[in-house]
Amino acid sequence: MLQLHPNIHHLPDNIWHTMLIAAVAGLLAWGGWWAHLEAIEVLSAGEALQAGQEPALIQGEGHAVYAWIEQLLADSHPLLINRILSAVGWVVSLFLVGRILIRISGFLLALPSLLLLITFPGLTTWMLAGGSGSVGLMFFLLGFASLLQEEHETSWIRGGVFCGCSVLLYPMLILPAIAIVLGTFEWDRVRAIRAGLGFAGAVLAGGLTIGLLSPSGFMGMWSSYSPLPEGAYPIGNLILKSILLVFAAVITVIWGARKRGISWWGLVAALLGGLVSGTSHAYGWIPFFVLLSLSLVKVPGYLEIRHPRSIQSVFLCQLLMWIPVVFS
User: Fold this and answer.
1) What is the C-alpha to C-alpha distance for residues 88 and 61, in angstroms, rounded to an integer?
2) Is 168 buried (19+), middle (13-18) or exposed (0-12) by CB count in 10 A?
3) CA atoms within 13 A on the CB side of 172
4) What is the DSSP string of 240-270?
5) Any residues with CB less than 8 A from the CB of 121 and at least 6 apart, and which?
6) Backbone angles phi, psi at 68, to 5 degrees
7) How far apart are CA 215 and CA 73, in angstroms?
8) What DSSP line would sit under 140-177, residue for residue?
9) For residue 223, which of 214, 231, 232, 213 has the smallest C-alpha distance?
10) pLDDT reported for residue 229
């Protein structure tokens, strides 16, 4: 049997198993884009996607911040700046997810979560569209990392500010952002107070600025997140129909309640937000899905799996289950 470098576990790495996982993940990453070729062609041609915020942005409506940005080059390059911001936000968000998980559990256990985000059907296409909220997700993950992993007092204030900015740019993050800020109070009151001050300051200052600069005003941030039109990609439905994802969520919420942390509070709040928004509301479920991917590394520990690397086999099963979804 060919082996990779020896590890501390008694079971050796199987290079063929690893190569199979990589091959299936690559197939799904390619298939996810190919299955949504029409949406990619629309993005490339500069036209607006029919489901999402882009039609509203073309009309000068939608989220206050993205509508104001759209006015800058609306005549010559419609949606260009918003799509660039969305692409940067999504790439940086993936990097931050990997960075957080690598610092917690190492690269190999972080890899399934990253591949799940990359290969999830339709997610990348949505996050690259103008006004997708990926920039807000990026700020949320920056705040999450600051509150979870930093020990400097200024980092806690900065974490609260980042969470406040995330709510301004992606209103669906309001429940998980508040949850992780308040969740720190359970184990570090000083950190919670500083984070709360940063959060409140960012929301107030940002809200006033948006109200003054944007024609749609402060409330324009919220009106754009009404239920998506018919034809929107059912991200919430896919999550709830996945046996393994639902099982991981149940394990994380129930078993994680004994060892609560800001990730647990954020996951529960994001789940409530997704359920309130409805299963067909794509943007309402993305915060839950991202936080669930961060929590996957804890599932082996909750189940007392002696060899955590065996989670790769479970992950491979999940990837195989996505094949008929992507290529149907």
Assistant:
1) 23
2) buried
3) 30
4) HH-HHHHHHHHHHHHHHGGG--HHHHHHHHH
5) 32, 35, 233, 238, 322, 325, 326
6) -65, -40
7) 16
8) HHHHHHHHHH---HHHHHHHHHHHHHHHHH-GGGHHHH
9) 214
10) 44
In the numeric block, which tokens belong to residue 45? Answer: 């041609």
State the residue for tokens 């990097």. 95
Of 178, 149, 184, 183, residue with least CA distance to 163? 178
According to DSSP, residue 73 is labeled S
Q: What is the pLDDT of residue 172?
A: 87
Residue 102: both structure tokens together:
């690598």
The pLDDT mean for the chain works out to 75
CB 119 within 8 A of CB 160: no
Residue type for position 97 = V
Write out the two tokens for 77. Answer: 């390059």
Residue 116 has a CB neighbour count (10 Å cut-off) of: 24
Task: Report residue 206 as tokens.
Answer: 């940002």
Handedness of CA 151, 154, 157, 159 (dihedral sign): negative
Q: Is 216 helix (H, G, I), strand (E, B) or coil?
A: coil
Q: How far apart are the first and last CA of the chain?
A: 36
Check: CB of residue 284 under 8 Å from CB of residue 276: yes
Q: CA distances (Å), 35 to each of 95, 246, 317, in order?
A: 25, 24, 21
**How many C-beta atoms surround the C-beta of residue 9 within 10 A?**
12
Q: What is the pLDDT of residues 137-148, one digit of tens each?
A: 999 999 999 998
Query: Taking residues 281-293, what's their average pLDDT?
Result: 83
Residues near 66 by beta carbon (within 8 Å), at least 6 away in sequence: 53, 57, 82, 130, 131, 224
The single-letter code of the amino acid at 278 is G
Report the percent of the chain where pLDDT is more than 70: 66
